[in-house]
């Protein structure tokens, strides 16, 4: 399929990134550090290479989980936690990911390589990090294979979908006082650090018992004594509700200013909850109680397959935004999940056993098939889109090069903006 039709390529030259960041931590603490850190990079380093290097830190984090606790990914039953020092490496890796993700745009402006390709590349890596980050964070919180981990995936992907949906309808990326890319990541970094000192078992303790507030009758009689990790999940739910209200408020204002329908954008939110319902239906297998996906080694591959499907969805949303195309409502990647959901619920729908997933082993194999298909499809999407954008704009993806008027490749550093255009590059 053509992700960018020929008639939409012209929109790439008209695209200009717009962003608003109201985070106090970002503006007064991290941004000065980022402005200094980007100056350490030579101008011949491509911004997309910085983005890709940042994602590599998260992949290394995931690889250490696979190395120290392979049973979590490959076997049934309980898992053994990795050494506590590993969580410190996860904290460092995630913080470096955040730092690299923050400076790639600054490097793009330094080298004159800012444009739609950078936004697509940046958001694509963010989408992949979202799922891997959920798996690692929930593992550190000792949630393991559970519906809480699934709920965390839902909340995290929903926030990402909301941000992309909002950017499509407002024309700018909006980060509020508390946002996932800044405060959310820092919160997970702190969780990793605490887990490194105490181990994951800390998060199973009851919050009122740990704080000894259960001895205060007024509090104990009104506040449920929930586990700390459950409290984090509830906090994520409150944050999601707040982001829904904030995102729609921004879209409402933008649409009303441009005298467009203010209700129609809400319809474009429906594909995400519909996809969540499909995943829930697939996880909830009537014929395999206590042996279904959520209790098997297929759970992490299931989350990864869903994450790749989601990355494909938001990738198409970003392409639609930068090329001024219609909002993509349907994505064919979800066909495989729909097949899995219908097949898993054959006993409920048609009073007959599943055709594919009639045993735990067959279910696991099918999940891995969906994971492979999702990976190949998303990889193809990235290659085709990168090829279309670089060919049309005459730029390279992972090197600082541009084609001049004669079609000759030259360093973009020597072709970048005039000095008067460099003011405020790091802002």
TrEMBL record:
One example GO MF annotation: diacylglycerol cholinephosphotransferase activity
InterPro entries reported for this sequence: CDP-OH_P_trans, CDP-OH_PTrfase_TM_dom, CDP_ALCOHOL_P_TRANSF_CS, CHOPT
UniProt pathway annotation: Phospholipid metabolism; phosphatidylcholine biosynthesis; phosphatidylcholine from phosphocholine: step 2/2
Gene Ontology CC terms: endomembrane system; membrane
Enzyme Commission (EC) number: 2.7.8.2
Cofactor: Mg(2+)
Subcellular location: Endomembrane system
Source superkingdom: Eukaryota
Pfam families, per the entry: CDP-OH_P_transf (PF01066)
Residue ranges of the TM segments: 44-65, 184-203, 223-245, 266-284, 296-315, 327-346, 366-386
Major localization class: membrane
Enzyme class: transferase
Topology with respect to the bilayer: Multi-pass membrane protein
Catalytic activity line of the entry: CDP-N,N-dimethylethanolamine + a 1,2-diacyl-sn-glycerol = a 1,2-diacyl-sn-glycero-3-phospho-N,N-dimethylethanolamine + CMP + H(+)
Assigned keywords, A-Z: Membrane, Transferase, Transmembrane, Transmembrane helix
Coiled coil: none
Family listed: Belongs to the CDP-alcohol phosphatidyltransferase class-I family.
Protein's name according to its UniProt entry: diacylglycerol cholinephosphotransferase
Source organism of this protein record: Russula ochroleuca
């Amino acid at each position: 399929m053509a992700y960018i039709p020929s008639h939409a390529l012209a929109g790439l030259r008209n695209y200009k990134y717009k962003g608003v960041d109201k985070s106090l931590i970002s503006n007064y603490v991290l941004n000065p550090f980022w402005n200094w850190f980007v100056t350490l990079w030579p101008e011949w380093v491509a911004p997309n290479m910085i983005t890709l290097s940042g994602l590599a830190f998260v992949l290394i984090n995931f690889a250490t989980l696979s190395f120290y606790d392979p049973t979590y990914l490959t076997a049934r039953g309980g898992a053994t936690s990795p050494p506590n020092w590993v969580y410190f490496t996860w904290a460092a890796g995630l913080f470096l990911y955040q730092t690299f993700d923050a400076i790639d745009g600054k490097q793009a402006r330094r080298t004159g390589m800012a444009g739609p390709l950078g936004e697509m590349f940046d958001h694509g890596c963010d989408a992949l990090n979202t799922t891997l980050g959920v798996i690692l964070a929930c593992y550190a919180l000792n949630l393991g294979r559970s519906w809480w981990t699934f709920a965390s995936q839902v909340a995290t992907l929903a926030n990402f979908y909301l941000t992309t949906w909002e950017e499509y309808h407002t024309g700018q990326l909006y980060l509020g006082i508390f946002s996932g890319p800044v405060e959310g990541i820092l919160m997970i970094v702190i969780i990793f650090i605490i887990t490194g000192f105490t181990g994951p078992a800390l998060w199973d303790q009851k919050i009122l018992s740990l704080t000894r507030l259960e001895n205060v009758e007024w509090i104990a009689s009104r506040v449920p004594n929930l586990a700390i990790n459950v409290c984090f999940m509830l906090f994520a739910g409150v944050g999601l509700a707040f982001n829904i209200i904030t995102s729609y408020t921004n879209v409402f204002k933008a649409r009303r200013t441009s005298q467009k329908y203010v209700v129609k954008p809400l319809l474009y939110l429906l594909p995400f909850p519909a996809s969540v319902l499909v995943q829930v239906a697939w996880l909830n297998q009537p014929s395999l109680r206590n042996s279904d996906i959520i209790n098997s080694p297929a759970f992490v591959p299931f989350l990864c397959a869903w994450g790749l499907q989601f990355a494909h969805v938001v990738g198409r949303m970003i392409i639609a935004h930068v090329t001024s195309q219609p909002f993509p409502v349907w994505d064919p990647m979800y066909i495989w999940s729909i097949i899995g959901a219908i097949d898993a619920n054959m006993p409920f729908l048609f009073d007959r056993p599943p055709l594919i997933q009639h045993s735990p082993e067959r279910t696991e194999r099918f999940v891995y098939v969906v994971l492979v298909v999702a990976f190949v499809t998303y990889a193809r999407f990235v290659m085709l889109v990168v090829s279309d954008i670089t060919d049309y704009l005459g730029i390279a993806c992972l090197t600082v090069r541009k084609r001049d008027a004669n079609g000759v490749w030259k360093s973009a550093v020597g072709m970048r903006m005039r000095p008067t255009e460099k003011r405020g590059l790091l802002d």
